[in-house]
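[READ THE FOLD]
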Amino acid sequence: DWSSDVCSSDLEAFGVVLLEAMASGKPLITSDIESGMREINKAGETGLVVAPGDPQALRRAIETMWTSKSLTKKMGINARSRYELLYSPSVFRSKWLNIICSAEKKKEKR
């Protein structure tokens, strides 16, 4: 079984679909564009990154994931771990609570 998430978009603000793939333990293939995709997918760790508008680079990345089961598995495990560490609902909830509490404290000081 081979499974990976490919997002070759030239325009992507953040990439929630990438988080969904990571939560499922899927390695990523993304375009190297200035967006949240650079923050989400760490090249060589959680997936592969290709130059935007380069179909040959995209083909090579897909072939790499297809032919190297151990690499695909390793990157999928890393992707899931990165998701749990930085993007899981409990992490987001904690960050939002910190923001709200900080705002409340600033409001009380006025």
Summary: Residues 7 and 30 are 5 Å apart (CA to CA).
